[in-house]
Write a structure and sequence with these properties.
This protein is mostly helical. Helix content is 47%, strand content 0%. It is built from five helices and no strands. The longest helix is centred in the C-terminal third of the chain and has 18 residues. The model has no long low-confidence stretch (mean pLDDT 95).
Length: 147
Amino acid sequence: MQSIFNTDAHQNILNRIESLNENSSALWGKMDVAQMAYHCQAPLNVMMQKKDYNLKPNWLIKTFFKKSLYNDKPWRKNLPTAPPLKVLDSKVFNTEKEELVNLVKELHLHKNKTDWQPHPIFGTFTPQQWGQMQYKHLDHHLKQFGV
């Protein structure tokens, strides 16, 4: 599994984000490209403890979904999103794209950090699992928009 902490994977994600434009359309799902760019910021913000999304622990989700966050099996299309992370309002694409790029770059600067705080829903992850999870989430949504 790729990791956002791997330099090549990190650059691949950035290149794919840069290839998006305000007319990029989804192959599945309800979000437009601006909403997707905003949504993709949330897991990065959670990991770096930049924003609190009021996520609550859920033992059922933790038990049955945690390993799927960082394994090699692709996520299926149209997976449900935790309610606090759903994007229902309009967003400005260029603003959200720029913020997403900045967060991905900032996270990569911490690639050697070993003491990440636990996830509010899923608990502890190794640094490797955190990096894989972030890559997998971004990859999933970039594929959603054909890049």
